[in-house]
Amino acid sequence: MIRGSSYKSIKGMCVLSINFYSQSDGDVPMRCTEMLRVVFALTIFVCGSLLGMAMPAGALQARTQVVMLGTGNPNPTPDQSGPATAIVVDQQVYLIDAGPGIVRRVEAARLKGIEPFNANSLNKVFLTHLHSDHTLGLPDLMFSPWVSGRTESISVYGPPGTKRMTNHLEEAWSEDIYMRLFGLEPRSSTEGYKASTHEIEGPGLIYSDELVRVYAIPVVHGSWPAAYGYKFETPDRVIVISGDAAPSPILFEACDGCDVLIHEVYSPVGLESRPPEWQRYHRSYHTSTVELAEMAQKSNPKLLVLYHQLLWGVPDNLTDEIEASGYFGRVVSARDLDIF
Ligand SMILES: [Zn+2]
Ligand SMILES: [Zn+2]
Description:
The protein has 12 helices and 13 strands. The strands form 2 sheets. A 7-stranded mixed β-sheet has the order 7-8-9-10-11-12-13. By secondary structure, the chain is of the alpha/beta class.
């Protein structure tokens, strides 16, 4: 575990090293330049691993990458798409939630170098719950990749009610579907817009293939009868993601030293500006920095990634708030298109 002062000194060394290598290129002989390039790449990789930095695509890569497609929440913050995360293992893509803006964020990530993203690889999504901020991008995910050439249906996993949602979405876009299939548009696949929907009835293993095992973890989210976090086991990493959740011990038990814990969070400082009835709501639906610090201490993830940050106008001092609450592990407040 890297504590505060050690973290800052490692960060300082890394910044100095990266600056040195970046500036050294122009005035050294060729072979030396090549060596510096290798050392530079290694420096980026080691420092990124140590500090939990978002890694530039194309740096030395693990088989599994976590791509933060959208880190937002219901509030329309311009720089944050709605909640959506991709776990990319080799050439396979596993999406968690479908917040508004998801498909355009996928394309931005592809342009940033995440090669497996394409219309056909967007074929699996695991919904944590059916709140609109997590599902407004679902029609986007069903129809846009189809228009771009997806030939097979998309598998949608989610709590009870998901099937009704995907049925209604196909019905809502029925005019568009008809025109694309039977109008002048060059032949579209007759399957690519369809959702193959699987409702999750309880905790445990809900999906597996040759690369991942996915476990549903029931979390507390106010009045919702079913809301899930997920645990992904891949060949080289264990990743746990909360979705929206009030403190849920079962989620932290599932992590138990996992490689990456992606967790929603709110600032109790920001919460003070909210009316009492909203404070009551948020406390029963979400997790504060103070609560997250306490839970993470017991769970000890190698990297804690914050998303779905609720700030209500205060600056993002979430990592400082967590450290001030007694958690000194590696923690990052994620931004859209960060890669871990
Ligand atoms: Zn939400
Ligand atoms: Zn929610």
